[in-house]
Amino acid sequence: MNKEFTNLLEKHQLRKTAPRLSVLSILKSRNTATSQPELEAMIGKDVDRVTLYRILKTFEEKGIIHKILDLNGTANYAICHSSCNEHDHNDNHVHFNCTICLDIYCLENIQIPDIKMPSGFVSHTTNFVSYGICKKCSEKAKQYTNSNEDQ
Ligand SMILES: [Zn+2]
Ligand SMILES: [Zn+2]
Ligand SMILES: [Zn+2]
After folding, report:
1. Which numbered ligand comes closest to the C-alpha of 86?
2. Which fold has domain 3-150?
């Protein structure tokens, strides 16, 4: 068992179960957010859909993962920065959703600017998703153009 993941579950007073550890290791191993259908496919038949749904819900409540909606409105999940706690997320970074590969990136180093609310409005969370072409896809497009020019 991975010590980092068991410690993380302990810190949040969660029982160390195999499905929870699998979800953590999948989410940690990727540099983009993962949707529930993707997780289902990666985790295999050992974990049923309801269990997976509950795990994601618990992790989100505990401040272990945060949810990002993609272009199609599908929920994607990414591991939180360590400063998140139960019912208190501090994921104030910009997300990037690629319109070609649909991957969602956490741009941890890009902070969402403070947005001044009109009087009487109290903001708890601000979502900032930028849509466009990711690095991987723009490099692919460049290679394609180059190989066409060679001919
Ligand atoms: Zn968070
Ligand atoms: Zn892309
Ligand atoms: Zn994020």
Report:
1. 1
2. Arc Repressor Mutant, subunit A (1.10.10)
What is the structure's pLDDT at 150? 62
Splitting the chain (151 residues) into consecutive groups of 10 residues, what average pLDDT does each group show?
88 94 94 94 90 96 94 94 83 95 95 93 90 95 78 58
- What pLDDT is stored for residue 54 in this prediction? 96
Calculate how far, in angstroms, residue 92's C-alpha sits from the geometric centre of ligand 1: 9
Structure tokens at 43: 């985790």
Residues composing the chain: 151
CA 137 to centroid of ligand 1, rounded, Å:
27
Q: Structure pTM?
A: 0.87
Distances, alpha carbon 18 to alpha carbons 5, 24, 27, 51, in Å: 11, 10, 14, 11
Indicate which ligand has the atom closest to the C-alpha of 27: 3
Residue ranges covered by each domain of the chain: 3-150
Give me ligand 2 centre to Cα 30, in Å: 14
Which residue in 37, 39, 18, 17 sits closest to 28, CA to CA?
A: 39
Measured in angstroms, how far is the CA atom of residue 36 from the centroid of ligand 1?
Answer: 17
